[in-house]
Amino acid sequence: MLESVLAARADPRWSNEYDFLTLFIDASLADVTPDDASALVESFATLDTPRADGLRKRAGIVCSDEMAAGLLVYYEVRSDSARASIERYFRTEREARAWLASPREK
Predict the structure, then answer these.
(1) CB 65 within 8 A of CB 27
(2) pTM
(3) Could you tell me which residue, 11 or 53, shows the higher pLDDT?
């Protein structure tokens, strides 16, 4: 995930106003520990910069792996207090896209 974000930020078309959708399809996060998740949150925090309009960026994370659900919920709760963006875990892409298309909160 971190490599994907770094690659996106290196693209000259990058905008700090973008929201994100991350899809983990047929991927298992079972080997990722809470410590790994905390380290990931901290790594992303160093890249997290506020939008110019003051609204928080949003990132929808979709994963169909039942074993990863607990870890992703932990990540969501942990990242909310550590980042300028809002992270949400969803079981389906449809739910994530609907949330990303919904009105923003400050």
Answers:
(1) yes
(2) 0.71
(3) 11
